[in-house]
Amino acid sequence: xxxxNFAIHAVFWPLAFIFLFRIPRCRSNKMGNSSYPxxxxxxxxxxxxxxxxxxxxxLRDQSFTPDEIIVVVNQSRDKTRDIAxxxxxHTIPSAPLPAGWLGKPWACYQGxxxxxxxxxxxxxxxxxxxxxxxxxxLDESLRKDGIISIQPYHKTKKLYEQFSxxxxxxxxxxxxxxxxxxxxxxxxxLFGPCIIMRRETYFNKGGHRxxxxxxxxxxxxxxxxxxxxxxxYCYGGKGTVSFRMYSNGIKELIDGWSKNFxxxxxxxxxxxxLAIIAWIGGGIGSVIYLTEAILNMNTFLIISWASxxxxxxxxxxxxxxxxxxxxxxxxxxxxxxxxFFIGVFLRSFFFVFIKKKVMWKGSTISLKKPEK
Length: 372
Hints:
Layout: H1 2-12, H2 15-19, E1 39-45, H3 52-60, E2 68-73, H4 80-86, E3 90-93, H5 103-114, E4 119-123, E5 127-129, H6 133-143, E6 147-151, E7 153-154, H7 165-174, E8 194-198, H8 199-204, H9 217-227, E9 232-236, E10 241-243, H10 250-266, H11 270-296, H12 299-321, H13 328-332, H14 334-355, E11 357-360, E12 363-366
């Protein structure tokens, strides 16, 4: 029975190589482009004075310069607008929320309406471009007949930021864009931090009007474009776009991941959801049964379960290296970070599906459907 139990858990281990097999990146056009369409970068921003300077510095250092940068200032109480205007960006004070709209979709939509560019790039304020990243993004977009979204490479500095490792890993896996099936499998949606598309496509298909009241507007926006027969493509951000998420402490990290993770999980197709759960179960099981084998002083089982534990640690390190600056100790002591992930996920589930409200940046967002 012990051997069968081990064999079952060992079978779960390779699942990660199936759902997070290959992560494509944007590439520059080696032949070069003599001309580009006009480009508008649209940045929704609320109390972002700490991160905007990093973003604008990265934009100044690009080999390609966008035609305009629009910052939609949404009820900021800090110097967000002053910083943006000092950098030469066009700022738009966000109008009051119309009925049925949430803040980010509304800000993006206002920015798109004000933009003059043929190409629209929606960019979160905490994101920033790597060297020649903007050109790589634009070149990749011009090669594709559709919409491109990028999950930025997650740069970390402090120890607590390592606790985002499994959220990044599971989010990338659940998107369904990086499986062993490659381009034959369509992503379930888009990554919200960086999206690029043609202006004509955006307005012809409704843009953020179609997802006005959605917390996970990026996933639903991707679904909307797919229904409109517009191809969507997802990429990893390494070498193109990066970000440093939740730099203001562990509470912001917990609130940020709690805000929409359970909703995103609910939109993940059942086969993918089961594969991810089985893989997580195998990782937890290796810890439990290794501990049990050590307590029973069973040398054979200690070696067997320890081998599986090490296999998970190496696999997790290999995966997280492609997603951000996550450390080897995060993979080696993965049970600690995995339990944190499970705890925050359960917290997200409680707030999203039971209390039907989430907290973000000092505001309470109700998830209750308005009564007709």
